[in-house]
Amino acid sequence: MMKNTQEIGSLLLRLILGFTFFMHGLDKFQGGVENVAAGFPAMGLPSFLAYIVATIELVGGIALILGFGTRIFAGLMACIMLGAILFVKLDSGFLGGFEFDVALLIIAIQLLLNGSSLLALDSKLPQIKLFSTQTIPDDTRKGIN
User: Where do the TM regions start and end (predicted)?
Assistant: First the structure.
């Protein structure tokens, strides 16, 4: 039962994070990404980052809703939120605007660390292992030292 409730919780977090980022990315494109890009230099950031951020928000939001590349997109969104806090909202203080960003950052980190397999495309695709979990037998390790 505990596993099921954890998966339901992760699903809800994945859906709300995906929807939130999708809407923010869509807003940037509908309002003109060039307008967003024009404000980046005032924050000490290059203008081209606005296009990258907007694309990650839009595409990553859809991917999270579908449960595709959950950990990868959650990691990218965590980076975006960290950047938003440090470069845009930090001076305003916690209650001055970055409390919501901290909440989104923590949700993204949770999904990065734990994933979300319930109703996710990730669970239907073959798993790619980046690191082997196979152990090396002791007798073959002797020459490694």
Answer: 7-26, 46-66, 73-90, 102-121
Amino acid letter for position 130:
L
- What's the rounded Cα separation, in Å, for the pair 39 and 22? 21
Half-sphere exposure of 136 (CA within 13 A, CB side): 7
Domains: count for the chain: 1
Reported as a single tens digit per residue, the pLDDT across 75-117 is: 999 999 999 999 988 888 888 878 999 999 999 999 999 999 9
Contact between residue 21 and residue 13 where contact means Cβ atoms under 8 Å apart: no
What is the separation, in whole angstroms, between the first and last Cα of the chain? 46
pTM above 0.85, yes or no: no
Distance in angstroms (rounded) separating the CA atoms of residues 81 and 87: 10
